[in-house]
Amino acid sequence: MTVTLIWIVVALVAIGLYLSWTAGRLDRLHARIDASRAALDAQLLRRASVTQELATSGVLDPAASIVLYEAAHAARQAEEEQREVAESELSAALRAVFGEVAQVEAVREVPGGEEAAGELAQAVRRVPMARRFHNDSVRAARALRRHRTVRWCHLAGHAPFPLAFEMDDEAPVALADRPGT
Asked: Are 59 and 35 in contact (CB under 8 A)?
């Protein structure tokens, strides 16, 4: 009888340790999602800010300036539900304006244009990396949350189901392929 009781206690302790470890892992994944989302938001804000700064600097023609400014402004002011669409529209506007190398070279030729083009190229390049990192974190948390043990024991608590950030983040060819930027 005592041996059976000892084995039951050992089994309960092992199950408790496993559940505690899994809950801790899930908590760390949720913290990683929060951190990666903050990094993604920072990169999206930086891209919109650099775009607005370039649009108001006077180095672009008026039509391109208006297109970029409105798209960047919409991306910065978008509500959470519309954020993916607004950011995709900013990507499309950047591709439309900087689709050709000649436009980027024209920006680089004006005073201060070299720095502005370089900063925009960096901002445009960092957004897809931040988005991929965030979506990878979401994918890992979703995979763990789908396990029966996590669902049955409610190890996720009241944390919302993590959502990926899906947007068009294709960079303009003229900005993406610049060596040294």
From this structure: no
The percent of residues above 70 in pLDDT, for the chain, comes to 97
The half-sphere exposure of 103 on its side-chain side, counting CA atoms within 13 A, is 17
Separation between Cα atoms, residue 74 and residue 161, nearest integer Å: 27
181: confidence class by pLDDT, cuts 50, 70, 90: very low
Q: How far is CA 69 from CA 38, 60, 149, in A?
A: 24, 11, 49
Q: In the 8-state DSSP scheme, what is residue 99?
A: S
pTM of the model: 0.84
Q: Where are the alpha helices (DSSP H) in 78-157?
A: 83-97, 101-109, 113-145, 148-152
Residue 92's alpha-carbon distances to 71, 162, 169, in angstroms, are 9, 27, 8
Report whether 134 contacts 164 (CB < 8 A): yes
